[in-house]
Predict the 3D structure of the following.
Amino acid sequence: MTIRVAEISEAEGIVTLINAAFRIEKFFVDGDRINLDQVLSMFPKGEFLMVDDDGAPAGCVYVERRGERAYFGLLSIDPTRQRSGLGSRLVAAAEQWGREKGCRFMDLRIVNLREELPAFYQRLGYVEDGADPFPPDTPTKLPCHFVNMSKAL
């Protein structure tokens, strides 16, 4: 399985993959994680790194340069392939992408209610460095906020 940059023609498949991976968040938020217009709006600002398995999308991550910092988000692994190491491989690819773009740091943010995520990212060298409010226009079933994490590249 190789990691590659996705083409804009794959946007619908990216939406499907992200929404399947983020179904785990249904306990605190209703609806899909992302829609086609949102994915399409991201292509001019950054890239989606994809990994395929037997010709089908197995995982993706969005990467964006922000000055000397890079950001990754929407790390998504097909639910049937989770816990296979693909997430760690995509994070490593995102970090390499950031280095190649001349970035000195990689940033991400997670929802505080996803209790399994801080330990995952800490094992990869990320540290918590602040918090941001959850978007007020997104109704939630439980109070929540974003936890910001970063790592020197």
Observations:
- The chain is about 25% helix and 35% strand.
- The CA atoms of residues 46 and 64 lie 4 Å apart.
- The mean pLDDT is 96.
- The longest strand covers residues 56-66.
